[in-house]
């Protein structure tokens, strides 16, 4: 979440952005369990959570959620949970897992959400580092992973599971069904009616609310310790800026272990009282999104890229009349849509045409996407292509970029309504101070600044200054309107041997705008020119291949087709012509590329669980490929280890073609213009 869209070079002198003071802590409701009690009292009959199960939406009111959290907390206390204990929470977005976070906080414990798709070996570090005593998990899959590593963690005492399916014959005495925990908690509560309220009252704003582990792009993950005050203030500041109320609705589908989900699906819901819905499964998210029609929605750029890819594939298969209508009205939208959304002057004819487009194209399209009711739509995590960003805004979706990090409790900058720029990530959120250091690094100070990295005082001191400023590790600049532009990770910004600026993330994100390209890794620091390795998008390229009569049986076979190389080469050359217009980056056009024979995968260590490229790991793993890209050969042999879904290891080999790409000189660019 700490990367946004930007261009240009790093600032050479320290600059700062305007500061707006934010909210202060309400001492009566300074923890999330206290906020839950408030919501149950003032809006007890309003829906707080929904979950789709077996095709049917089930709802719980704030009063019912408060009762469930109370029972879970009392049940965990019966099992021995005490103040300060770390509790791992693992699974998909399920109401009981969110309620467990509140229940653990009620007892002064520390929730430690973990990525549900992590394999057993990946869980080891967090389980050990956090000193986890209890684990609350969704289902048999997560139980089985813990059983694989159980003997390695004597401090891990018990596991509570939510869904009993498949666990009937598991006889370990440390396994507990959540239904039994709830029953025990209700019995304990009836016998000790003041216990829960006394425990909640003991909590204060400065207590640790949650520990979230970073994605570990450069090494082992770090445990980011966030207090109730950190999360409460950033959540309420952003909610007040955007006008979020109890009438809003959101969809919780991103990993519980990610700070963004914790803020959007938990903290802001408790602060404002809006309803959060959990999809039936990760496979039904888009269907469930259409059914719900949320008013508040967040998705990282790859999600919006996938949605647009699906739209374009469907349009290519549509009738000629529909394609012509879509093309015409999208032209109107690009010309007038964003201005209408920002309430800027638009001519009568364009306004009328845009209204007609809304009837025939934009309205049905937004309805199909499930975004008809969206009032606030955020994207962050990495840069979103300007054309992609403008597309969504042009059809009337109030998409905005934000910039944040786990260490900030998410919000550092937000694009204000009416001040939306495709190449910035907005102005400082309320309560945030922002500056760019002399070396171009973005730094911030805010109420959301993390307390510490758990058991890592050295890293804490390196990241957070004594006066509270935090090093983001990102290179950026602040423009004349006070908007922040992010160029790249500071450590990744380099130079070609001729001194040309090399910003790999910027290049990668420009290429990922093309629907046929799913992932890119750029190389060029201290080299004569820039090269890339590319992952194709199997769905988009597969659909294109089928319409062209190109047969294939696997990703590897499709990626090796000369016609696919031609397709990607054309798009890279188009990107080169666009890059040639940018004075500081024109020299970092791509000269050579290849299509990788496999998709980059978190299970193979090439991506983090939040799907960020682990650049150093990829460079080491594919060193043979990189050497070939900077040689003269037109192909290279490679054998790669892969991890299958069941955890087994294997290898795949390929003979990868390497293509040279046409670049654009300044003279050619001027002639073209």
What does the model show?
The protein has 22 helices and 30 strands. It has 673 residues and is an alpha/beta fold. Among the domains are: 300-487, Rossmann fold (3-Layer(aba) Sandwich), CATH 3.40.50; 494-672, GMP Synthetase, Chain A, domain 3, CATH 3.30.300.30. The strands form 8 sheets. Strands 1-18-19-21-22 form a 5-stranded antiparallel β-sheet. Strands 5-4-6-7-8 form a 5-stranded parallel β-sheet, with helices on both faces. The model is unreliable at 3-13 (pLDDT under 50).
What kind of sheet is the major sheet? Answer: 5 strands, antiparallel
Number of helices: 22
CATH topology of the domain at 300-487: Rossmann fold
User: What proportion of the residues form beta strands (DSSP E)?
Assistant: 15-25%
- State the low-pLDDT regions, or none: 3-13
Strands of the widest sheet, in order across it, are 1-18-19-21-22
Helix amount, in percent? 25-40%
Structural class estimated from helices and strands? alpha/beta
At CATH level 2, the architecture of the domain at 300-487 is 3-Layer(aba) Sandwich
C-alpha end-to-end distance = 36 Å
CATH homologous superfamily caption of the domain at 300-487: ANL, N-terminal domain
CATH top level class name of the domain at 300-487 = Alpha Beta
Rounded to an integer in angstroms, the radius of gyration calculated over CA atoms is: 25 Å
Strand count: 30
- Using the alpha-carbon principal axes, give the shape: globular
Give the integer mean of the pLDDT values. 91
Overview in brief:
The protein is α/β, with parallel strands linked by helices and 673 residues long. It is built from 22 helices and 30 strands.
């Amino acid at each position: 979440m700490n990367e946004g869209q930007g261009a240009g070079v790093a600032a050479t002198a320290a600059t700062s952005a305007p500061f707006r003071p934010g909210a202060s802590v309400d001492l009566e409701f300074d923890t999330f369990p206290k906020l839950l009690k408030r919501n149950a009292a003032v809006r007890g009959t309003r829906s707080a959570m929904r979950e789709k199960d077996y095709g049917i939406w089930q709802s719980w009111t704030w009063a019912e959620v408060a009762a469930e959290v109370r029972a879970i907390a009392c049940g965990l206390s019966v099992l021995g949970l005490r103040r300060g204990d770390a509790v791992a929470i693992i699974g998909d977005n399920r109401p009981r897992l969110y309620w467990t976070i509140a229940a653990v906080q009620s007892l002064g414990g520390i929730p430690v959400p973990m990525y549900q798709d992590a394999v057993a070996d990946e869980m080891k570090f967090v389980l050990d580092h956090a000193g986890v005593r209890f684990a609350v998990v969704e289902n048999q899959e997560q139980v089985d992973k813990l059983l694989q590593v159980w003997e390695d963690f004597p401090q891990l005492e018990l596991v509570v599971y939510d869904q009993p399916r498949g666990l009937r014959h598991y006889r370990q005495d440390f396994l507990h069904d959540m239904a039994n925990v709830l029953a025990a908690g209700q019995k304990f509560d009836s016998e000790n009616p003041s216990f829960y309220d006394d425990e909640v009252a003991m909590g204060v704003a400065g207590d640790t609310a949650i520990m979230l582990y970073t994605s570990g792009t450069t090494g082992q993950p770090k445990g980011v310790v966030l207090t109730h005050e950190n999360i409460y203030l950033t959540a309420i500041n952003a909610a007040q800026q955007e006008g979020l109320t109890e009438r809003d609705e959101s969809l919780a589908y991103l990993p519980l272990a990610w700070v963004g989900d914790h803020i959007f699906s938990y903290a802001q819901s408790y602060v404002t009282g809006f309803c959060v819905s959990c999809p039936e499964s990760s496979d039904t998210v888009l269907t469930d999104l259409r059914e719900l029609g949320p008013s508040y929605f967040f998705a990282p750029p790859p999600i919006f890229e996938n949605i647009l890819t699906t739209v374009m594939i469907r349009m290519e298969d549509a009738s000629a009349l529909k394609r012509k209508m879509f093309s015409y009205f999208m032209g109107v939208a690009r010309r007038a849509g964003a201005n209408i959304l920002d309430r800027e002057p638009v001519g009568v004819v364009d306004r009328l045409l845009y209204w007609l487009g809304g009837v025939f194209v934009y309205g049905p399209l937004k309805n199909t996407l499930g975004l008809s009711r969206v009032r606030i739509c955020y994207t962050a995590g990495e840069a979103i292509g300007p054309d992609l960003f403008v597309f969504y805004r042009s059809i009337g979706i109030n998409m905005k970029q934000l910039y944040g990090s786990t260490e900030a409790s998410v919000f550092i900058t937000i694009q204000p309504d009416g001040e939306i720029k495709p190449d910035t990530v907005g102005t400082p959120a309320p309560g945030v101070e922002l500056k760019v250091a002399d070396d171009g690094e973005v730094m911030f100070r805010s109420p959301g600044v993390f307390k510490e990295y758990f058991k890592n005082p050295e890293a804490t001191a390196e990241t957070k200054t004594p006066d509270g400023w935090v090093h983001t590790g990102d290179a950026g600049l602040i423009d004349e309107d006070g908007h922040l532009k992010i160029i790249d990770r500071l450590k990744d910004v380099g130079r070609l041997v001729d001194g040309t600026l090399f910003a790999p993330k910027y290049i990668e994100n420009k290429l990922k705008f093309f629907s046929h390209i799913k992932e890119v890794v750029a190389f060029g620091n201290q080299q004569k020119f820039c090269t890339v390795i590319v992952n194709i998008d199997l769905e988009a390229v597969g659909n294109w291949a089928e319409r062209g009569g190109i047969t294939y049986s696997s990703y590897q076979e499709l990626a090796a087709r000369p016609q696919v190389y031609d397709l990607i080469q054309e798009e890279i050359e188009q990107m080169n012509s666009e890059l040639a217009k940018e004075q500081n980056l024109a020299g970092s056009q791509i000269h050579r590329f290849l299509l990788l024979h496999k998709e980059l995968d978190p299970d193979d260590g090439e991506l983090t669980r939040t799907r960020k490229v682990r650049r150093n790991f990829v460079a080491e793993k594919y060193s043979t490929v990189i050497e070939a890209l900077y040689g003269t050969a037109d192909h290279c042999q490679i054998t790669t280890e892969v991890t299958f879904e069941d955890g087994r290891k294997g290898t795949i080999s390929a003979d990868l073609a390497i293509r040279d790409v046409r670049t654009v000189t300044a003279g050619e660019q001027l002639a073209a213009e």
